[in-house]
Design a protein that fits this description.
This protein is rod-shaped. Strand 10 and strand 11 form a beta hairpin. It is of the alpha+beta class. It is built from nine helices and eleven strands. The protein has a five-stranded mixed sheet with strand order 6-8-9-11-10, covered by helices on one side. Strands 1-4-3-2 form a four-stranded antiparallel sheet. It has a two-stranded antiparallel sheet with strand order 5-7. The longest helix is centred in the N-terminal third of the chain and has 54 residues. It has three domains: 127 residues, no CATH class; 53 residues, no CATH class; 135 residues, Histidine kinase-like ATPase, C-terminal domain (Heat Shock Protein 90, 2-Layer Sandwich), CATH 3.30.565.
Amino acid sequence: MKLLDKYNRLNIAATIITFVVGSCIFYFVLNYILIRELDETLQTEQQEIISFAQTHNALPEIIPTQDQHIQYELIAVDDAIMEVPYKTIKKKLGKTEENYRELQFTIKAGKANYIVTVDKPIEETEDLLKVIIAVTIAMIGIILLIGFLINRIVITRLWKPFYETISRVKNYHLTDQDSVKLEQQEIDEFSLLNTSINEMVDRIQQDYGSLKNFTGQAAHEMQTPLAVIRTKLDSLIQNEEVLQKNATDIADIERAVHRLSRLHQSLLLLTRVENRQYVLNGQVALDKVITEKYGEYAEMAEAMKLSYHGNLQSVSLLFHQQLAEIVISNLLNNAIRYNKQGGSIEIILKSESLSITNTSDNGVLDNTRLFKRFYRDTTTIDGTGLGLSIVKQICDLAGFAIRYNFSDGRHTFIIQFS
């Protein structure tokens, strides 16, 4: 969930709860105030009747009105003037019932005692209350809508630099020659974030540059010792007396030198790819490259009694001939070397993808480390651990996507061209 969406949900929920609780409190307070105003009107009418009776020794004449009803009831007992508390009653007028606010009190006029009942309809008060509540709810709705729109627009604009920074960082690759170079922002927090990322990327690029230089220099420096070792090894092999006495040791040295030589070539290739020394500006017939490379490995495949199934469409890519041969060679070499006796290899080439599948007795490979340098399966003794890393670097350079699947004892490498 995005931060903006979460904030809006919390903000709207808190606002709605606040307004609902506030509206309920407002309703009861307003209702109390309006009823009290009505009670004060009834009390004023009571004082007028009492004042009239004291002055004229008689009750005032009842004048029928729509918003007030007065009723006198003669009583026999000579009671003191006593006020009955206000109360709300229902009166039936025709087929409908209406709520009234009523006040009863006793009064003496002349030689008689009366119970005076004064009531006023609450309908007007209720209507006024409904109008006020409706207006309040409408205002709350408008405030919520305006607040939501303002938050949506303002906060989106405020967070725009943050998302731009995330996008730049997401699209950044360590092999790029240029740094991220994030601009300073008006908001201090975003400016601090960009400054920290710029400094971090600069340090990473310096360390990465130092590592690349070391790898390249180390690979070049290995050439001379390797040449010396090969020369000395050839001399030992040509010496029959030494060869007979140390045949096993010399064979081990020869294998080690061969492996070291392949490691040296792989490191040199990785350095060239990372430094973008290859220009991808040639049309490469990938189906022909696959056919030629499989022909080179056909003898090895026959020795393991592997069955081959190929479905190759005619595909031409804007690529580099040597890099295309390296990718196909590495994938085919792995598919054959790590296959099982009597297994199979399947190659499918389409305009949008290439997949190479091989059977194996080994289980699934670690997908999180598969394309990292010097990663080798625990069952693998031979190999430099750089083959798939080279394939991944070349695919990244060409803009291809490579992924690995394992199902039913079959390893599949898929290269997506677009």
